[in-house]
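We treat protein structure as text, and this decision shapes the records that our systems exchange. The tokens are whole numbers drawn from a learned vocabulary of local backbone shapes. One such record is reproduced below, unchanged from the form in which we store it:
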Amino acid sequence: MTQEDDVPYPLDAAAVRSWCGLALEALGRERERIDAINVYPVADGDTGTNLYLTLESAARAVEAAFDGHASAGTAPGLADAIGAMAHGALIGARGNSGTIVAQLLRGMTEVLAAADDGTDGGADALRRSLRRAAAATYEAVAHPVEGTVLTVATAAADAAERTAGGTGGAAEVAHAAHEGARSALRATPGQLAVLGRAGVVDAGGCGLVALLGALADALGGKVSATPVAVRADAPLPEAAGCEAAARTAAEGCGDPDGPAFEVIYLLEADDAAVARLRTRLDGLGDSLVVVGGDGLWNVHVHVDDAGAAVEAGIDAGRPYRIRITHFGGAGRAKEPAMAARAVVSVVPGDGLAGLCAQAGATPVSVRPGEPPASGELVQAIRQAHAREVMLLPNDPELRHTAAAAAEQARTEGVRVALIPTRAAVQGLAALAVHEPGRSFDEDVVAMTSAAGATRYAELALAERQSWTMAGVCQAGDVLGLIDGDVAVIGSDLTRTATTVLDRMLSAGGELVTLVLGADAPDSLAERLERHVRERHLAVDTVVYEGGQHAAPLLIGVE
């Protein structure tokens, strides 16, 4: 698409793909300006960044859908593309506004997927999808507040409905929705007192205006690249104006009595469990937004007791990709105090995430087969609020991703050391010797040495017949991997684990670390501890619960 194009495009899979690309470009341009005016619900200056990361995840999902169809020799339909966009936004949603936008896209999908037969995929379908999207955002928020992105979404739907009977097709509807959203955005300072005091419009609403502007461009066949007005008194501020907005926003906008933590996680649970979870979390804090459906949800809440919020998720189902961010200071503050040094650690399970958080690290909880993107690691580094950061990838496959994240963070003024941890147990060993009081270089050397001195193993179940370095395995066999290679094939988890331990300790060792997955037998830890005690003198054993999505057993020998 070029700026000279002026022929409207149909609302189809290609339009959704174009929409994603243009939205990502728009939010990339607007990110810093939106961050600068972020005063509600918390003045933490990250709404633009969160929206960008949410759309980045959505765009990756759409591209994956197109690649999958290309490999199969088929073309995706509207339902495939918009469904991928909504799912990508759901699993990658960041912050309050990102979570709400994910639900908005889901609401649109509910209507547009049904219109994929080509008989109702134009103007009328888009009008109805925008109305459903606005309603869905209100359903997701525990306590809706006007003057926010919710109000802007409703105004967009209202304006879209007023085009009924027009002849401009979906492009006309999208343009009207964009203009309606812009008008509503300008009115937000008069609807929400905190915005009026800061002299800015709603940051989440800014992001939605950018998103709808990209949709109008994708369907209209032209790229406007019009900046979104972020100040109540100056429609198009330059960078200096954004900095002034940030300073204004910081004065009197933070709530010193508000919750101290933001907790976000993906959750596999049924509808009834999620309904109970909403009630439980609503009693723990505020800014509660739960979006999703069909068994997969994104949960966002601000609380003082982050552990209780995670435990509520565990009781409801299977939480993963757990992210806990401290707002800094006593209660909320615009700029959290910068720590001298912090650790960011990628971990495969909620138990390990909690363990790392207790040790003072910022955990990035991941699910097997769903590695984090570099942008997610960069965001975790930012949220650590430290001048110096140790990054622990804990997976050899994340080496390049972590390196890219570290390089990006360095351009933002953060000193980042990439500790070459290849497994979660190496990350635990490195974290155990972390000492912020010594020099950065000395800490890097100590953590790297501790990780390098830790041999690691993992027990997993074979999914299919395969050739390995230990021979041929069959589906269901227990595989004992030592330092990344299959070394033992067995039929019983405990017996295979003892064989792996004996092989690792044959070269010596002083400490054995066992990390149990949620599906590990109850007696496994006790039997392995007894085996080590009886067969290997002067070797200590520590046991941790890895929780859901960790392997059945992780082993470290130091």
Observations:
- Residues 396 and 501 are 22 Å apart (CA to CA).
- The first strand starts at residue 261 and ends at 268.
- The two ends are 57 Å apart (CA to CA).
